[in-house]
TrEMBL record:
Top-level division of the source organism's lineage: Bacteria
Pfam family, one: Pyr_redox_3
Matches recorded under InterPro entries: FAD-bind_Monooxygenase_sf (IPR051209), FAD/NAD-bd_sf (IPR036188)
UniProt cross-references to SUPFAM superfamilies, sorted A to Z: FAD/NAD(P)-binding domain
Designated name of the protein: NAD(P)/FAD-dependent oxidoreductase
Lineage: Bacteria, Pseudomonadati, Pseudomonadota, Gammaproteobacteria, Moraxellales
């Protein structure tokens, strides 16, 4: 809908609109409040905060990063029930933070962004939303990389007459007891929910295209006494958080230097000999790539679930549906009542790119169709002035998403502060800075396990270019994000 200039002038002009009230959106609101940057609003498509931790409610859903690190530095929690937090308590934590920092008054719920267009004449963003037109001098897109469930195109899918849903849109009203269930995919979500549904199923068919590395999870119940003790002595939590951070730094060191991982590859395969009794099953679940090339998975109950009498691992992809018959790549056919898609998310390109137009009127997703997106420090994109992306291209490092998002938000908010103090109306990343940064990123990624580990992962696009991973240490990432340098940008 086109609005007249007079109509637009009547619409409130915000200094900043934050799109999304998940982890990054909450952090952005807290940090903006800290610097008394008041003229902003957070818009959220759902009716509650939480992002991916609100949307993913499948059985067994939880974090694969230790709880100690899965909280904001400005609001640590002592309420985790386990070393690795479960989804309900992570969601409760995010709600508590929003309440504690009085963020709800700044969040407009049930408001989805349909389109964001840059107005070059007035140096501002025009946003079309489900609640009408909005305008802002700057925008922070905090919608995250794991928001849109990926549904593969399978021949004959329209002929299936049973129940079907994605793990990120779990149908809790459907009773799985006594059903013949097909699970498609063996990624991070599937290895969590498969052990939960296996005891309910009459028959469980798990389709695995590529065997993942599934390592033991050093989890334990913390209990009320230990939680109270940690709450009484905050220093314990600080020490715990530091120890976890150091252990993840060691993992990151290995991911950057694949040679260091050879002993881990050897030990991991030896461990499979102890975990899997059946020789053929052991062969089928043994990865054929270096550990860390794909996302590391942690579980203690996944392999036992695969070895249950009612579970059948199918080491092939699903290629066709013929009515209620699922057909694997090797031609095997199985009759099922329900299909659960554990096929992950559309992470090849930031999903928000479908809704953003650059200064030339081009939709970002269209530009990225045949190539990977590029950004400076995962935040600033070519021809996208006065706007920042959180958890964008080449920012992922093995650590808590909360830690990465918080570091990036600190950088962006520092930039917004400088823009306001200096009266800057328009700012855009310098092309030469963007190019130099991304050339270095790609050069340094070549020797990491992500590129040299022998696997196809969602980190790599169709051309084999890594658009997701950060090639250096977390310490280096945080150093680069410590302060917003105006020298990297063109501005007026």
């Amino acid at each position: 809908m086109q609005l007249s200039s007079k109509a637009k002038q009547k619409i409130k002009l915000y200094d900043t609109i934050v799109v999304g009230a998940g982890i990054s959106g909450i952090a952005a609101a807290v940090k903006l409040n800290e610097i008394h940057y008041d003229n902003y609003i957070v818009i959220e498509k759902a009716n509650e905060v939480g992002g991916t931790w609100r949307d993913n409610t499948y059985p067994g859903c939880g974090c694969d990063v230790p709880s100690a690190l899965y909280s904001f530095s400005f609001s640590p929690s002592s309420k985790w029930s386990h070393l690795f937090a479960r989804q309900p308590e992570i969601l409760d934590y995010l709600k508590d933070v929003a309440q504690k920092f009085d963020l709800y008054k700044k969040i407009q719920f049930d408001t989805s962004m349909d389109e964001a267009v840059w107005n070059e004449k007035e140096n501002l963003w025009e946003l079309e939303t489900s609640k009408g037109h909005m305008r802002a001098k700057t925008v922070i897109f905090t919608t995250g990389p794991i928001t849109e469930p990926q549904m593969p195109k399978v021949k004959g899918i329209e002929s299936f007459k049973g129940e079907m849903f994605h793990s990120a849109r779990w149908n809790h009203d459907y009773d799985l007891r006594g059903k013949r269930i097909a699970v498609i995919g063996t990624g991070a979500s599937a290895i969590q929910f498969v052990p939960q549904i296996q005891p309910l199923a009459k028959e469980l068919y798990v389709f695995q295209r590529t065997a993942p590395w599934v390592l033991p999870k050093p989890d334990m119940d913390l209990g009320n006494s230990l939680q109270s003790f940690i709450e009484r002595f905050p220093k314990i939590q600080q020490t715990w958080r530091g120890a976890v951070s150091q252990s993840l730094n060691l993992i990151n060191l290995g991911l950057r230097n694949p040679g260091f991982l050879e002993p881990v590859n050897f030990l991991g395969k030896k461990l499979l000999n102890l975990q899997i009794k059946d020789e053929q099953l052991r062969k089928d679940v043994t990865p054929n790539f270096s550990i860390g090339c794909k996302r590391l998975l942690f579980a203690n109950n996944y392999y036992p679930a695969l070895q249950a009498e009612n579970t059948h691992l199918i080491p092939h992809g699903l290629v066709e549906l013929d009515g209620n018959t699922v057909i694997s790549a090797n031609g095997d056919r199985h009759e099922v009542d329900v299909i659960i898609w554990g096929t992950g998310f559309e992470v090849a390109h930031p999903p928000i790119g479908k809704k953003i137009k650059n200064t030339k009127g081009q939709v970002l997703a269209e530009l990225w169709k045949d190539s990977s997106p590029e950004a400076y420090l995962g935040a600033s994109i070519k021809d996208i002035p006065n706007a920042f992306l959180v958890l964008g291209p080449n920012i992922l490092v093995y650590d808590s998403f909360i830690g990465i998002a918080e570091a990036q938000i600190n950088y962006i908010v520092d930039g917004l502060r400088k823009l306001k103090e200096q009266g800057i109306k328009r700012i855009e990343i310098r092309p030469e800075v963007l190019k130099f940064h991304n050339v270095r990123v790609q050069q340094h990624l070549q020797t990491t396990v992500f590129n040299a580990g022998g696997c196809k992962s969602y980190y790599l696009d169709q051309n084999g270019r890594n658009f997701a991973a950060w090639p250096w240490s977390l310490k280096e990432l945080k150093r680069r994000l410590k302060a917003f340098s105006l020298d990297d940008y063109e501005y007026v």
